[in-house]
Amino acid sequence: MLELIPDRMGVCQDQTSTVDLLIRITPPPRQAATHRPNLNLALALDRSGSMGGAKMELTRQAAAQVVNSLAPDDVLSIVAFDHEIETVLSRTQVRYKEQLLNLISRIEARGNTALFDGWQQSASLALAEAQPTRINRVVLLTDGQANEGETNSDVISSHVHKLAQQGVQTTTLGFGAGYNENLLRSMANSGQGNHFYVETHEQLAQFFELEMAGLMATMGTQVRLKLEAAGADLEWLAEVDKTPDGEVRLADLVNEAPMSQMVRVTLAHSGPIKATLSWHCPDGAGRKSVESVLSLPPMSVTQRQDMPMHPEVEVELAIAMAARARREAMASLRSGDERKALTILKEALKIPKLDKLEVDSLDDLLRTVQRGDHDSGHKKVAMHSHGHGHGHGHGHGHARPTLSQMPTTDAFHSASLDLRPGGALFQTVPSAGSRLWKRIEGMLRGLFYGERLGWGDKAPMGEASRLTVATAQHLMNPPFRLQRLAQDLAEAPVLRASPSLKILQGNLDLGKPLDRLGGTTAGCAALRRIAPLLIPHCRRPDPSLWREVALATMLTHNDNAALVSSLGYAALLWDLLAKEQMPDPRWFLGRFTTAVTGLETGNKYDPQARRFRGTPRTLCEFLEQVIPDARAQKLTVSQVGKGWGTGPYLFELVPTLLYILECHGQDPQEALRQATTNTLDPASLGAVVGAAVGALHGPQSAWQLEPDLEEFLRVAEREWN
Question: What is the three-state SS of 641-658?
Answer without folding.
Answer: HHHHCCCCEHHHHHHHHH
